[in-house]
């Protein structure tokens, strides 16, 4: 009767390792994996290179801000290239831009971000800012852009839209968005059905 696969492999590898034509170095590699000693300076070098890179990026950012006359470090394009940008950091930057009255710049910044950095909260902030500026058509464009990017609106999104629209006294200049309002209302009812 033949032995099991593991014991057959062990017998074959021992036979190869004990053969006089196989160098002892190969035997050590076959029998167990020898790890090379860890370099103590490798981690220190990595930390030094990382800190040097961070200093260089800060220097480039300061240079960019001085050339373009930007006072705040929150809205520079160099800050947006950092991997792992969290949505709450994006909201903080959007709020800094909105405080300066730069809604269009905030919108273009969000449109250029990767999808994993953008969530429904960010879109809600942009929609609320558009409604506050009485740019209702832009608010609906942002709403549909959010849906195109596969971000589902939540109850807060609909609240922002309809509370803002309820403050319109004269609808004559906004007659072209009435169809969108009714469409959004139907989507709100469907949203409530999903929540049940």
Q: How would you describe the overall organization of this protein?
A:
- With 196 residues, the chain is mainly α.
- Helix content is 68%, strand content 0%.
- The protein contains 10 helices and no strands.
- The model is unreliable at 26-34 and 75-82 (pLDDT under 50).
User: What is the alpha-carbon Rg in Å?
Assistant: 30 Å
Order of secondary-structure elements:
HHHHHHHHHH
The N- to C-terminal Cα distance equals 66 Å
Oligomer state of the chains in this structure:
single chain
Number of β-strand runs = 0
Structural class estimated from helices and strands: mainly alpha
Kindly list the characteristics that best describe this protein.
196 residues; mainly alpha; 10 helices; flat
Walk me through the topology:
Blueprint (H helix, E strand, L loop, with lengths): L4 H14 L5 H8 L9 H28 L8 H4 L6 H13 L3 H10 L7 H13 L3 H13 L6 H12 L11 H18 L1
Helix pairs in contact: 1-2, 5-6, 5-7, 6-7, 7-8, 7-9, 8-9
Quick summary:
The protein is mainly alpha-helical and 196 residues long. It has helices at 5-18, 24-31, 41-68, 77-80, 87-99, 103-112, 120-132, 136-148, 155-166, 178-195. Helix 1 runs antiparallel to helix 2, helix 7 runs antiparallel to helix 8 (136-148) and helix 8 runs antiparallel to helix 9.
């Amino acid at each position: 009767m033949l032995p099991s696969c593991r014991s057959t492999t062990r017998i074959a590898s021992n036979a190869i390792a004990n053969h006089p034509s196989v160098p002892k170095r190969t035997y050590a590699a076959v029998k167990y994996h020898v790890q090379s000693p860890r370099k103590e300076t490798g981690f220190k070098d990595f930390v030094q290179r990382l800190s040097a890179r961070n200093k260089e990026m800060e220097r480039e950012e300061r240079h960019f801000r001085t050339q373009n006359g930007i006072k705040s470090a929150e809205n520079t394009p160099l800050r947006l290239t950092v991997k792992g940008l969290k949505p709450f950091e994006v909201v903080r930057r959007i709020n800094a831009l909105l405080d300066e009255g730069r809604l269009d710049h905030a919108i273009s910044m969000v449109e250029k971000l990767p999808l994993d950095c953008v969530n429904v909260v960010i879109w809600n902030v942009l929609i609320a800012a558009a409604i506050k500026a009485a740019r209702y058509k832009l608010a609906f464009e942002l709403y549909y852009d959010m849906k195109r990017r596969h971000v589902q609106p939540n109850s807060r999104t609909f609240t922002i839209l309809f509370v803002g629209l309820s403050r319109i006294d004269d609808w004559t200049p906004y007659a072209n968005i009435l169809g969108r309002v009714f469409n959004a209302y139907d989507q709100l009812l469907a949203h409530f059905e999903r929540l049940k």
